[in-house]
Amino acid sequence: MANKEALRELQGRLAERLQEARELEPTVGWLAVESAGYPFLLPLIEAGEIFQPGALVTVPHVLPWFLGVANLRGALTGVVDLAGFLGLRERVPQAVRDQARLVAFNPKLEINVALLVDRLAGLRNAEQLTPEAPQDPARPAFVGARYRDVAGRVWQELSLAVLARDERFLRIAGRE
Questions:
Q1: Is the CA virtual torsion 135, 40, 88, 61 positive or negative?
Q2: Where does the source fall among the domains of life (predicted)?
Q3: How confident is the model at residue 135 (pLDDT cuts 50, 70, 90)?
Q4: How much is the pTM?
Q5: Which one of 69, 95, 136, 147 is separated from 76 by 20 to 30 angstroms, measured CA to CA?
Q6: Are 78 and 102 in contact (CB under 8 A)?
Q7: CA angle 16, 84, 114 (to 5 degrees)
Q8: How many CB atoms lie within 10 A of CB 89?
Q9: pLDDT tens, 94-108?
Q10: Would residue 134 be called left, alpha or beta, if left means φ above 0 and alpha means ψ between -120 and 50 degrees?
């Protein structure tokens, strides 16, 4: 029970810091998340609210990474398992779902989608990270720069704005 309360407190603090970051001068900043053990950076300007996963309505005949539809603040929102979409896992383990979070896309991107991420890892800014050389020149357009933090961990930036227009991301029906 204490873990759930600590997670709620962390989520509340992150939401407050996210709002504060949006109100400050525009600077480069990211929401740091983890999915299937991989660290990702989502641009703050492209990220929306953070939600605790609730009831999902499953949708028939969709790809496995499209988990269903959730009611987030009165809006029907598609929920995508980030790790599943990226091919990092096939199914979300129940233990992960219990502590996962949904990161909605910023409403300005005009797409009702939220990414299921395994863990929130705080906020990052440009002063905390050192750019790394890209490893794969044939990466998808939504995969941005790589950064190393002071602990030596390499983070991969994902552009939600580009992802929102990616043909593969938008094609949820059928088989891969």
A1: negative
A2: Bacteria
A3: confident
A4: 0.82
A5: 95
A6: no
A7: 35
A8: 19
A9: 878 888 999 999 999
A10: beta
- CB proximity list for 14: less than 8 A, separation 6 or greater: 31, 50, 120, 122, 123
Tokens representing 121? 């890892």
Q: Are strands 75-81 and 113-117 parallel, antiparallel or unpaired?
A: parallel
Please state, in angstroms and rounded to a whole number, the distance separating the CA atoms of residues 22 and 45: 7
Burial of 145-165, coded b for 16+ CB within 10 Å and e otherwise, reads ebbebeeeeebbbbbbebbbe
Could you tell me what percent of the chain has a pLDDT over 70? 92
The answer to whether the beta carbons of residues 42 and 109 sit under 8 Å apart is no
**In what side-by-side order are the strands of the sheet with 154-158?**
119-125, 29-35, 38-43, 154-158, 143-149, 129-132
> Any residues with CB less than 8 A from the CB of 48 and at least 6 apart, and which?
103, 104, 105, 106, 107, 114
* Choice between 97 and 23, residue whose per-residue pLDDT is larger: 97
